[in-house]
Amino acid sequence: MSTLWLWASDACLLIGSFLLLTGALGFLRFPDFYARIHACGVTETLATGFVLLGLLLRSDDAMPQVKLVLILLFVLFSSPTASHALAKAAWNAGVRPRDNSGKRRVSLPHTDP
Amino acid sequence: MRYSLAMAGFLAIFWLANSGHYSGLLLGLGALSVLVVSWISHRMDVVDHESIPLHLLFKLPRYLLWLVGQIFLSNLDLVRRVWRPGTPIDPVVARVPLPQDSDVCRVVYANSINLTPGTLTIDMEQDSLLIHTLSREGMDALQEGEMARRVTALEQ
């Protein structure tokens, strides 16, 4: 394990942590339910990717590396499905998006009630 | 038969990659579990072109590379929006056409939209998707349809 790989791993972990922080901040700052799902999208795609890549560069055995790649694959398969399920449930329950001021309703396609 | 063999192959590779123990007894048990799982899936009649999309195998890597690039770009855009004062977002909800015929490609398309932060699939209908985006540009890009074209190209 050379120092170069450790530096690369540190950089990946730092970027991943920054992206996780960004996701959390977006979750707090965005005005409504749907916009907050977008903020979580940052944590579940690129942040997860960078954190797992950082861990991958840190391990020097093939077995944990294979498992980290599998974790990334499963997260990338399941997280969009989960956010779709949340959004659809909210939409069917009558939650409608709001704009940045948090008050005015966003215009919807006219076929919807 | 082709799909059953492919699935047994994938299962064997998966077992070998995850086990890390290669003594005779454990390899035998691994082979046995691959056989049992293959037999059960065959009896359940779930092994077909939909659960084992072999026809996508060689086209998928190129699409995935492009998708990773898109994920990077949309993440950067969202990071900028989060940290800027006043969180400059302008949500749009609209319908986007869903040109794919096969279920696999429809799911690939809807999941790709969800994987790029800033666009979210709310609902799926026969020939359209209900999409929420954080910005007008995000919706324009989807309606322009490059992602849809690339997913449709997987089908052919």
From TrEMBL, chain A:
<keyword id="KW-0472">Membrane</keyword>
<dbReference type="InterPro" id="IPR005133">
    <property type="entry name" value="PhaG_MnhG_YufB"/>
</dbReference>
<protein>
    <submittedName>
        <fullName>Monovalent cation/H(+) antiporter subunit G</fullName>
    </submittedName>
</protein>
<feature type="transmembrane region" description="Helical">
    <location>
        <begin position="36"/>
        <end position="56"/>
    </location>
</feature>
<dbReference type="Pfam" id="PF03334">
    <property type="entry name" value="PhaG_MnhG_YufB"/>
</dbReference>
<feature type="transmembrane region" description="Helical">
    <location>
        <begin position="68"/>
        <end position="87"/>
    </location>
</feature>
<keyword id="KW-1133">Transmembrane helix</keyword>
<keyword id="KW-0812">Transmembrane</keyword>
<feature type="region of interest" description="Disordered">
    <location>
        <begin position="94"/>
        <end position="113"/>
    </location>
</feature>
<dbReference type="GO" id="GO:0015385">
    <property type="term" value="F:sodium:proton antiporter activity"/>
</dbReference>
UniProtKB/TrEMBL annotation, chain B:
<dbReference type="Pfam" id="PF01899">
    <property type="entry name" value="MNHE"/>
</dbReference>
<keyword id="KW-1003">Cell membrane</keyword>
<keyword id="KW-0812">Transmembrane</keyword>
<keyword id="KW-0472">Membrane</keyword>
<protein>
    <submittedName>
        <fullName>Na+/H+ antiporter subunit E</fullName>
    </submittedName>
</protein>
<comment type="similarity">
    <text>Belongs to the CPA3 antiporters (TC 2.A.63) subunit E family.</text>
</comment>
<feature type="transmembrane region" description="Helical">
    <location>
        <begin position="12"/>
        <end position="40"/>
    </location>
</feature>
<dbReference type="GO" id="GO:0005886">
    <property type="term" value="C:plasma membrane"/>
</dbReference>
<dbReference type="InterPro" id="IPR002758">
    <property type="entry name" value="Cation_antiport_E"/>
</dbReference>
<keyword id="KW-1133">Transmembrane helix</keyword>
<dbReference type="GO" id="GO:0008324">
    <property type="term" value="F:monoatomic cation transmembrane transporter activity"/>
</dbReference>
